[in-house]
């Protein structure tokens, strides 16, 4: 089966960012015998710079997996240049796709809706099924985060959202909240499939010898209890409150944030202004190295803004922390909190509450070795049941295969009736 997989922000594992689509593509090639073309941007969103040829050459060559790097307009903050970035990627995806041979199925992913719209157009021209993956609920996320206020733009994006829901042959969501949200809009429940984020089990092995090295790289002392956040640094992540938790911590504690984004400079200013020497802000690292940093820390932090739209979030770092076996502090109420508490792998510290986060760190520090061992076991059991990327890739591939068979039958019936 020939699959086109498009995500503006997809990255291979040697870069920091969304590796979901590369990992799905590789599983489909290695385990299912598919031929996959992954369309991704040569401008790295999290690092705000173009990916150089040397970085691209570092990737293993995988027969059957084709990476199509598309130029997109550079930007450093969320202004009109980011809109141009989205438009340019979607336009070049459509233009490039016109001149390539037909896939069996076209899979296009949000968060922004322009890439899926270009994907739908190409699917009509190529006469193949179209699958829409919903990573974020646009435009609802933008509106509720006060990032979009123009009523005409909101109306246009809301229309486009509904249009894509109706026209997609299959919709893939990452959380139960998203599934319920889309079904509530009148979309048939059987059309929506829940394929959450996950982990390539076996892709990383703990190495106790590296623990001290990575603690040195974080800038923390051997005696400090370290809470680590690894991920995007944007307005939606509410990291100001994570940084400010450093004000409420005594000696012997540290907070480390790894990643990049439009809020990074403001976080540096908060750290400097409040003299938070126990807070460390690090640059992004490749996915493989993130696990070593998590292993060297004592717990992981999940942080999002106190907003209804994030009640249904299930970010990938939830799976990362459980995979490595670390207890979790979440500031996010809703689906993440339910998973953390029901599986006994961490604490809810309160939304946008620096003092609450600091108190949660103190509680986790006083866990016994036996309690920590049980947290590790529960986390890995959850990954085995719900977060194994290979199992999820196989499940999704089966749905795509069924969709392609159904599509061919429909086309043959249409020809006979015509």
Stretches where pLDDT falls below 50 for ≥5 residues?
414-418
Number of domains: 2
**Second CATH tier, the architecture of the largest domain:** 3-Layer(aba) Sandwich
Task: Report the C-alpha radius of gyration, rounded.
Answer: 22 Å
In spatial order, strands of the major sheet run: 5-2-1-6-7-8-9
What's the number of extended β-strand segments? 15
Query: What is the CATH third-level topology name of the largest domain?
Result: Rossmann fold
What separation lies between the terminal Cα atoms? Answer: 27 Å
Strand coverage percent: 15-25%
Rough outline: globular
Structure class: alpha/beta
User: How many separate helices?
Assistant: 16
The largest sheet, given as strand count, sense and whether it forms a barrel, is: 7 strands, parallel
CATH class of the largest domain: Alpha Beta
Helix content estimate: 40-55%
CATH superfamily of the largest domain, by name, is: Glycogen Phosphorylase B
Mean pLDDT: 91
